[in-house]
Design brief:
alpha/beta, 9 strands, 11 helices, 259 residues, disordered C terminus
Length: 259
């Protein structure tokens, strides 16, 4: 029917999004002023922007309030959940990305430690395989929930011909030890990459308890695969070490990013 083909407006906001001031600051052009002048029918001259003239990379990252919301599931979906954003600048994409993570409140662990992988979708498990050699080379001890560990072991990833060791942990609702809850409580794991599957998108699932425990324990928690992969790349290219932590600590007003 014609009603099904009609375009309907469900929301109209006469405002500039948070991206506009970010782009304005990055490119040093006040787009809000320009847009206002256009609406007032004033003459506006073009403001040329030459991206190759910039010697820095800027990164915008959302901020969430999962820590303040008791019982909330720290995973992202289609809903608007962010309560703010931060903008950071770096000499390259990796540096800008790490600074944005720190500024948005994510606890960043630079030094090698135990990292737990719990990946829901099958393609996520497949994608992480080529990043395991980077983690192994940096000295991270790799843990994984049973499903993820079984997939990794079945594909037998290696670094320089040597099999990469992965320790399997029972999930958060299994009393059998070692499990993810005991590993986090004992600080054997200080970093968690947990990407929910469609079955784990709501309710009191094992994934929910894992993410919530990691958040409450103030561990590095990443729930988006693309973000996690870039994080691994950034650590690998900037150096996972105490010196790297101290350098980034200088960018957080003298306070170490690992504190």
């Amino acid at each position: 029917s014609s009603s099904l083909r009609a375009v309907k407006v469900i929301e109209c906001n006469v405002r500039a999004s948070r991206t506009v001031p970010f782009v304005s600051k990055t490119l040093n052009v006040n787009f809000i002023e320009l847009a206002t002048r256009v609406m007032l029918k004033q003459d506006v001259k073009p403001s040329p922007v030459y991206l190759y003239d910039f010697e820095f990379v800027s990164c915008k990252a959302p901020m969430f309030s999962f820590q303040r919301l008791s019982g909330s599931d720290p995973h992202v979906g289609v809903e608007m959940q962010s309560t703010g954003e931060v903008a950071c600048f770096g000499q390259n994409a990796n540096e800008a990305f790490l600074k944005a993570l720190i500024a948005s409140g994510i606890k960043v662990t630079f030094e090698p430690c135990g990292i737990l992988l719990s990946l829901g979708p099958q393609d996520h498990k497949e994608t992480i395989l080529k990043y395991l050699p980077f983690l192994d080379e940096m000295g991270f001890r790799i843990y994984a929930t049973t499903g993820t560990a079984s997939y990794i072991e079945a594909n037998a990833p290696k670094r320089k011909g040597v099999p990469i060791s992965v320790t399997s942990l029972s999930n958060a609702v299994t009393p059998k030890k070692p499990n993810v809850m005991s590993a986090m409580a004992e600080k054997a794991v200080k970093m968690v990459i947990c990407t929910p599957s469609s079955r784990d998108s709501g309710g009191a699932t094992a994934g929910y308890f894992l993410r919530r425990k990691a958040l409450e324990s103030q561990l590095t928690l990443l729930v988006n695969l693309q973000q996690a992969l870039m994080f691994i790349d950034a650590l690998y290219n900037n150096g996972a070490s105490k010196e790297a932590a101290e350098n980034f600590g200088l960018w957080t007003h003298g306070k170490s990013a690992t504190e």
